[in-house]
Amino acid sequence: MLKDAEDRKLKEMEAKGEYESALNMVRDDLGKKDSQIAEMKSQLEVYQLQEQTKREMLLDKLSDDDKAIYGSLDNNALEAHIQRLNKQSVPSVGNDQPAETQGYKSLLDAARDFQKGKIDEPIYKRIKNAFRANQV
């Protein structure tokens, strides 16, 4: 609708012989569009940088084998896959005596899972205490 109004105004100016004014009006319009394009390009660069950073963080959570297999997924699918992997790989943990190691063969394995967020702190402390109690 604005475009139609601008076109009508431009034709009226041309009909009256006001070519300078018409030319200035077109130049102003182009200047505004150029600044809008520059702003949009700037926003696009920021968005692309954020997406690349997110992708790198997601890929860092995968093993090299998984990166080769799942690295071609888009960020949303990759994030969903990693969340599903983390849910599946959590070892079964009961509320039994702290002397249990919850199936871990070493404290180092439990510490790695704790760092990756696969087990929470209270469970890790129980496992750590169980390994320390078994050393005595």
List the helices and strands and how they pair.
Layout: H1 2-16, H2 19-60, H3 64-70, H4 75-88, H5 107-116, H6 121-135
Summarize this entry quickly:
The chain is mainly α. The chain has helices at residues 2-16, 19-60, 64-70, 75-88, 107-116, 121-135.
Can you give a write-up of this model?
By secondary structure, the protein is mostly helical. It has a domain at 92-136. The protein is 76% helix and 0% strand. The protein has 6 helices and no strands. Helix 1 runs antiparallel to helix 2 and helix 2 (19-60) runs parallel beside helix 4 (75-88). The mean pLDDT is 84.
Strand tally is: 0
Main sheet properties: none
Radius of gyration: 31 Å
Principal-axes shape call: rod-shaped
Give helix % range. Answer: over 70%
Low-pLDDT segments, ≥5 res:
none
Task: Calculate the terminal CA-CA distance, rounded to whole Å.
Answer: 84 Å
Question: Which short descriptors sum up this protein?
Answer:
136 residues; mainly alpha
